[in-house]
Input
Amino acid sequence: MFWRISCLVLFLASLWAPVHGGPMTSPHPNITDQELFWGSDQYDFSVVLPAGGLECFWHFAHRGEHFYLNFVVQWVTGVGHDSHLSVMVNAPGGLVVSSVDEAKGQINFKAEETGFYQMCFSNFHNRFGNMQIFLSFGVFYEGQQDPAKSKEEERKKKEEAGKDLNNTLTIIADATHRVENQVFHMFRYYSFGRMRKSGDHFLLLSNSQYITWWSTALSLLIVTSGYLQLVFLKRLFVSKTAEEEKPRC
Output
C-alpha cells in the first residue's frame, strides 16, 4: 500500500514538474525589451568562416537609433580563392535592409523597427577555402558622433585631461612648496619672537634683582651715614664741668 502511494506521488510530481520547473522563456517577464536592451553597444571581433559557410549574428536596436556595420576580409585560404564576402542585414520583421558583396565595406542605416537585426555573412564564393573576417558593429543615438570619431575625441579628451591633471598636479606641488616655505618662515619668526620674549623676561628678572640689591644697600648706607652723622654732631656739643676735670684720688 505504501509503495503504491509513493508511486502515485512520483507520478503526480513528474506531471507537475514541466509546468512549474521548466526553463523560463522570459528571464524578466515584468520588464519590457525597452528597459532590457536600452544602451549604445559596440562589438569588435574576428571570425573564421569555413568553406561555403554561413554565420549570422543578432544585435538589438531601438527605433530611431543609427545602426552601423563595418567588415573586412583579413585572409582567405585555398586554391583559386575569392576574397568577396556576401553580407546581408535583415530587419526584425524579416525584410532585407541592406546587402553587400565585397571584400570590405560598411553598412549604415537608421533603425525603423525596434528589435534584433540579423547580420549574415556567407562564404559561398569559396567552396574549398576558409576566410577570416573582422567585424565591427553597434548602434549609436541621434546626436552622437560616429564611433571612430568619438574614439578619437575620447582619446583627445583623455590627453587633455592628462595634461590638465599634470598642470593641476604641478600647480598643487608649487602651492605646497610655497605654503611649506611660508610655514617655515612663520615658525622661524615665531621662534625668534619666543627667544626675544625669553631674553626680555630674564633681563627684567636680572634688573629687578639688581635694583632690589642696590636699593637695599643704599638704604643701609643712608641709615648708617645718618647714624654716624648724628653721633658726630652729638659729640660736638658735649661740655665738661669743673667737677669732672678735678683729679680723682
